[in-house]
Structures are given as structure tokens and as C-alpha cells.
Design a protein that fits this description.
Two copies of one chain form a homodimer. With 209 residues, chain A is mainly α. Chain A folds into two domains: 61 residues, Homeodomain-like (Arc Repressor Mutant, subunit A, Orthogonal Bundle), CATH 1.10.10.60; 146 residues, Tetracycline Repressor, domain 2 (Orthogonal Bundle). Chain A contains ten helices and no strands.
């Protein structure tokens, strides 16, 4: 790498600072939206929460809607990436489904405020954003459904329509944002393991007795 | 029964009419709150949706908050009553749990708008109402947890902390308000049966193989 000029170093620092402030604003907005609801929060609140004036926030985001959109689309994308890492391993369907449920539960427990916002504030998105979110949801569900269907085809899973299984499994995990307590008696990993185990066991095709 | 006087008949009709209008207002508010969110809806909207003026609504409810409270507390009470009918039968824990999960899923699918409001608008209740809702939720969960614990004690269920099982089972059912489609390929009863079966099977204690 060529040695950096002073100007490049300054630009690097400025760009890192900007990225940092952007993240700070998104984190502040996430906490406030989750606590009070999107409509009840103003750009002033988001700024004041960080000791900034609202002009700082407007430098990074053109509107409250853009903040909401960034929150929703970026984190959903991280959920999707983590599931794709599993599906790309081409594991046997039973093993894959168990890992995917476990990962989804962990993603929710790592982002409970986000899951709350995602669940409650979809109506606040504009029509184009809503369409995009629905597409992302369909893609996400489809990853789970095709693994379940592959398992049914191999005789591993019970013949239950995959959208019912996936609606149930994701719902079980999504609801964690309501009750999961990081200070509770079980760790996120333990809860995720229990959920993966209950669902895998519950879906297994057994010989008639 | 003594013959009714004209005044009694008139009073009967008036009281039936009042009860009817009350229900109409609650149904209108439920639909609007679920669609647009509590904060975005005015008493005017609730009234206009029925072709009334807002003074009619104020005759029955002193505020928008009272409408929300009536919606939340009455329907939650109906959920609770239906589960208590099952627990009072003193069935074996595995049979009881399966019936309770099935019933909870059906209650959600019969009241998807309500479940959405209950889930999204708790922050809009006043502190006393919120405390009361939390107590109702604890009582509801406790009915499920004690059945699960009885099952563990009898060696029927896996030794998993009951709050994890109940959080998972209720979450699985609660999420139905997001995706259940009354015009879908499966009936509410079929979905409820699948959920009850997956969870019961997933919770069964099996001899080590």
C-alpha cells in the first residue's frame, strides 16, 4: 500500500467518524422506536438522546422514514445472510432445519428491539418499501420452506404443508422479543437449542406404532 | 314471569340497542386500530366508520383509551375463560397441553385484529391498565406452565424449563395473526391441530435409544 498522505488520513478519519455517527443515530432511533413507537418519536428526540441537535440527524438521514427504512432493511438483511450461510452448506434437511431455527432464534434474541419495530411499524413504511419488505419476508420464508419440503420428500419430516411449519417455527422464535430476558436463567444459546430440538423432534416422521 | 308493561318493553329495547351500538363501536375501533395503529385513529374516525357523529361514541366511552381498554381486557378475558374450561377438566397433562395449545391457536385465528392490537398497543395503556394486563398475561401463562410442570413430574414431558416451552408454544400461536389467512388452503382447525401435534410430539420424554 502506498504511504497515506495527510489529506487521505484526514478523509479516513472523517469517513470513520461519519459511519460511527450514523450507527449511533440508528441505535438511538431503534431504542426510542421500540420503547415509544415510531409515531411518538420525533427527529428531535433521536438527536436529543445523543446530545445532538436535529440538524446533525438531518445531515445523515433525510427523514424519520429513511431512518426506519435503514433500521428495517439492514437488520433484515443480516438475518437473511446468516440463514444463507447455513443453506449453502447443503446439509441433510433435518440438520439444516434445526440449525436454521436455532440461528433465527439467536438473531431475534440479539435484536429484540429491532424485531419489535419490524413487527409493529410495517404500516409506517411507504408502499414501495412495504413491497420490498414483503419480498424479503417471502425470500426468507422460502429458504425454510424448501428445506422442509426436501425433508418431506426424503421421508424425514411429516407431511404437513411447509408454510404451516415455517409460520409456526418462525413465530415461536419471533415471539422471543416479547419475553426473552438476557438476565434470565437460560442463555440465548440454551433457549435456541431447546426451540430447535422441540421443533425438529415434533416434525420427524415416525413409523406408525 | 309477570306480563311486561309498555315501559318495561321500551326499556328492554333501549338497553338492547345500547348494547348493540357499544359492540358496533368496539368492532369499528378494533378494525381501525389494527389497520392503522391506535395513535393514527381518532374518535371521529371510529364514529364516521359507522355513520355516527363522535358524540354518539362519547355517549358510550369517555375516551379513546377506554375503547382500547375495553377491547383488550374483554377479549383477553374470553381467551382466559376458554383455557380454564380445559384446565378444570383435570385431564392428563399431555392431553391437557395439546388441547390448550389447540384452543389458544383457535382463539388467535378467531381474533387476529385483536391479537395485533394486544401485541402492538400495550404502550398506549395507562400504568394501572398495563399492570392489570401483565397480571392477566402471567395468570394465562401460569395455566400452561403448571400443566407442563405436572407433565414433567409424571415423566411425560422433557425436563425443559416450563416458561421456555410456554413462551415458545404461545409465540407459535400468537404469530398466526401475522400470517393466518381465513381463505388459505387449511382451515383454522387444521392449523391448530398441526400446532398441537408438533408441540406435543416435540415435548414428549422418550426413552434414550
Amino acid at each position: 500500500m502506498p504511504p497515506k498522505t495527510k489529506a487521505t488520513v484526514r478523509a479516513d478519519i472523517a469517513s470513520r467518524k461519519q459511519a460511527f455517527v450514523r450507527e449511533e443515530i440508528l441505535a438511538s432511533a431503534t431504542a426510542l422506536f421500540a420503547e415509544r413507537g415510531y409515531r411518538a418519536v420525533t427527529i428531535d428526540d433521536v438527536a436529543a438522546n445523543l446530545g445532538y441537535t436535529k440538524s446533525v440527524v438531518y445531515y445523515y438521514f433525510k427523514s424519520k422514514n429513511e431512518i426506519l427504512w435503514q433500521i428495517i432493511s439492514r437488520i433484515f438483511d443480516s438475518f437473511l445472510q446468516k440463514i444463507m450461510v447455513i443453506t449453502e452448506q447443503n446439509l441433510p434437511p433435518d440438520e439444516a432445519l434445526s440449525k436454521m431455527v436455532r440461528q433465527h432464534a439467536l438473531s431475534v434474541m440479539e435484536n429484540p428491539q429491532w424485531t419489535s419495530i419490524f413487527n409493529k411499524e410495517e404500516a409506517e413504511l411507504d408502499p414501495t418499501q412495504r413491497r420490498q419488505v414483503r419480498r424479503m419476508k417471502r425470500d426468507y420464508d422460502a429458504l425454510f420452506e424448501s428445506v422442509y419440503e426436501a425433508g418431506v420428500a426424503k421421508g424425514l419430516f411429516r407431511k404437513i404443508p411447509s408454510h404451516v411449519i415455517v409460520g409456526g417455527a418462525l413465530g415461536m422464535c419471533n415471539w422471543l422479543y416479547v419475553w426473552y430476558d438476557p438476565k434470565g436463567s437460560l442463555s440465548a444459546e440454551q433457549i435456541a437449542d431447546h426451540f430447535a430440538s422441540i421443533l425438529s423432534t415434533g416434525c420427524v416422521e415416525r413409523p406408525a406404532t
